[in-house]
Amino acid sequence: MEEGKRRKTKRKKKGAIPLDMAMLHLSGLDWMEAMQYINERDGCNLNKHEILILASGLEYSYECELVKAVRQGLLYV
Question: Residue 75 burial by CB count (10 A; 0-12/13-18/19+): exposed, middle or buried?
């Protein structure tokens, strides 16, 4: 490492919690089951293809929120 340059280290914010304690891991099938339940409960009349698309979007959105929380220092790995 060149003289005068310091390595950047990630600092966790006070009150941050470990990612493994905060993360509720749901597999793709869990998201599908959740969307099927909502579809039946609310009478949305979605077909299986629409449920698959919505479940995939929910899973991706959830993962993006976790990454954002880690970057903000709210969660740490």
Answer: buried
49 CB-near residues (< 8 Å, 6+ apart): none
Give the number of other CB atoms < 10 A from CB of residue 32.
19
Report pLDDT digits (tens) over 58-72: 888 888 888 898 888
Q: What is the rounded CA–CA span in Å between residue 71 and residue 48?
A: 35
The encoded tokens of residue 45 equal: 């009349």
- Indicate the pTM of the whole model: 0.59
Residues 52-61 have pLDDT tens digits of: 999 889 888 8
Please report where in the chains the tokens 């293809």 appear, as a residue.
49
